[in-house]
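Lecture notes, continued. The same structure-token format from the folding unit now serves as the input rather than the output. Read the line below as a description of shape only.
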């Protein structure tokens, strides 16, 4: 006969589910969750993310970064399609229209039909808002309105502590902050008490300890892969399949004191069987190209870059190597894990 006596080992590990996410990314997830409460009873939504204004910081790149972050957060909702921002910018540019917090969004039905017809996506709603700094906190306010009637659909307001990312987006020196308070992780063990097969007053019970959980770091993500070139820090954030396309998302940070051009070209992946596949599309912020893309990056403001590859098996779980030329230098990233989208 066996009896299980639980024993508990308490470990303090500096980790949490949001350890690797910036405050903006976490705030974006909360904003989308709140907006969803307002439109969840409606039909599917085709949303245009308008300009987000950073109050009192006219040269801030915060607005474009927030647009990208909200776009990623909206991907978790299958009922929502965010109309491609590059298409939106191109269409608005041709019609000399700017969407911002001061724009009157009422009566946009005819305008919407006209300017978005070429994109094959007529919006059902617009999202716009403001970013404001309050001491050590950042407040983001977002409104969603009906594209035809101009009536409010939903709204959200999130306040969170500033961090390294927000410092850079606001063009400020990065401040030294105290490390986050560690979380407590409980690891259980079972003590197995065995009784001898035959009853005996002489043979004692024997105790064995079996560890049913092993204390491991909560970080189950692949190790960070990044490189530096010409004053740029390029960090691989995620590799995943989006439909049939294999996508590599990067963050590019210009550490130079001035705005400087950054280029990506000659990108290809090597699959586990040694097959080489050339890149199908490249993006840096709002700039895009086929086998080459170039964009001017302001100082100390992270920008999203991505590489899209077609023709790879969606059953792949890893990539042997990613070869690329960035800012005129060749680099190779090896053994890249393909994560879930």
């Amino acid at each position: 006969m066996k009896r299980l006596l639980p024993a508990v080992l308490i470990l303090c590990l500096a980790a949490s589910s949001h350890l690797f996410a910036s405050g903006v990314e976490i705030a974006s997830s909360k904003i989308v969750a709140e907006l969803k409460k307002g439109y969840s009873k409606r039909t599917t939504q085709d949303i245009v993310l308008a300009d987000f204004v950073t109050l009192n910081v006219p040269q801030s790149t915060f607005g474009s970064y927030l647009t990208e972050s909200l776009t990623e957060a909206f991907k978790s909702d299958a009922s929502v399609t965010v109309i491609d921002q590059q298409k939106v910018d191109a269409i608005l540019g041709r019609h000399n229209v700017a969407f911002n917090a001061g724009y009157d969004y009422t009566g946009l039905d005819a305008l919407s039909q006209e300017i978005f017809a070429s994109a094959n996506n007529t919006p059902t709603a617009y999202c716009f808002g403001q970013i404001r700094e309050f001491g050590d906190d950042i407040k983001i306010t977002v409104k969603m309105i009906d594209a035809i009637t101009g009536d409010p659909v939903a709204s959200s307001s999130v306040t969170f502590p500033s961090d390294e990312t927000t410092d850079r987006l606001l063009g400020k020196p990065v401040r030294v902050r105290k490390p986050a308070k560690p979380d407590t992780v409980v690891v259980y063990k079972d003590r197995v008490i065995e009784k001898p097969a035959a009853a005996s007053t002489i043979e004692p019970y024997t105790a064995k300890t079996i560890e049913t959980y092993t204390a491991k770091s909560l970080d189950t993500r692949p190790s960070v892969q990044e490189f530096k070139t010409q004053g740029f820090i390029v960090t691989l954030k995620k590799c995943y399949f989006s439909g049939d396309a294999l996508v590599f998302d990067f963050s590019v940070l210009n550490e130079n004191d001035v705005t400087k051009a950054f280029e990506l070209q000659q990108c290809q992946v090597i699959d586990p069987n040694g097959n080489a596949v050339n890149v199908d599309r490249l993006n840096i912020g709002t700039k895009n190209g086929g086998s080459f893309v170039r964009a001017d990056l302001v100082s100390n403001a992270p920008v999203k870059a991505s590489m899209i590859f077609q023709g790879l098996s969606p059953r792949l779980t890893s990539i042997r190597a990613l070869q690329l030329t960035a800012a005129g230098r060749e680099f190779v990233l090896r053994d890249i894990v393909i994560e879930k989208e």
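Point for the exam: The longest strand covers residues 2-13.
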